[in-house]
Amino acid sequence: MAIRLIVKDPDPVLREQAITVTKFNANLHKLLNDMAETMYDAQGVGLAAPQIGISKRVIVVDIGDEQGLVEMVNPEIVHREGEQIGPEGCLSIPNINGDVKRAQLIKVKGFDRDGQAFEMEAEGYLARAFQHEIDHLNGVLFTDIAESVYDISDKPRQARGE
């Protein structure tokens, strides 16, 4: 496993429509392993392959709950319901957060690392993370759809009253 460099906006790969994965092999397994290690090292809750410069439809998500690490290849949201508005940040857009409207509950389908199809439901924060990462596969950044965007680079100083 290896920690990969996270590309930053405005890198063009972040605006591409990612390519569908057709080969479920050792290269894909290494990519998934590296993506998880990179996400954890950066203290993120999700990562899409375009964020490490690879235009493939691959995501990893781990919001720190009982679900643990979810790897999904060629993910597709097949059902959405409800609405939530909340803050989001992105490893590819450091020091910027925004308030984004997302579905409260989603059903997503895709494949595991071995090419086995599966579906899962996600609600709340997990649903938000999936929607954010799947947007990356379509060249959409949270700042494109945020209702408001704000700089958080000086938040620690504000918290200290400086």
Overview of this structure, please?
The protein has helices spanning 26-41, 125-137, 142-145, 155-159; strands spanning 46-48, 58-61, 70-81, 84-90, 93-102, 105-111, 117-123, 148-151. Helix content is 23%, strand content 33%. The chain has a 5-stranded antiparallel β-sheet, with helices on both faces. β4 and β5 (93-102) form a beta hairpin. The chain is α+β, with helices and mostly antiparallel strands and 162 residues long. The chain contains 4 helices and 8 strands, in the order αβββββββααβα. The protein is globular and about 40 Å long. The chain has one domain: Peptide deformylase (Peptide Deformylase). The termini are far apart. Mean pLDDT is 95; it is low at 157-162. The longest helix is centred in the N-terminal third of the chain and has 16 residues, at 26-41.
Question: Short summary of the structure?
Answer:
By secondary structure, this protein is of the alpha+beta class. It has helices at 26-41, 125-137, 142-145, 155-159; strands at 46-48, 58-61, 70-81, 84-90, 93-102, 105-111, 117-123, 148-151. A five-stranded antiparallel beta sheet has the order 1-2-3-6-7, sandwiched between helices.
Output the structural class: alpha+beta
Strand content: 25-35%
Could you tell me the mean pLDDT?
A: 95
Helices and strands, in N-to-C order? HEEEEEEEHHEH
Tell me the CATH superfamily. Answer: Peptide deformylase
Kindly report the CATH topology: Peptide Deformylase
- Poorly predicted parts: 157-162
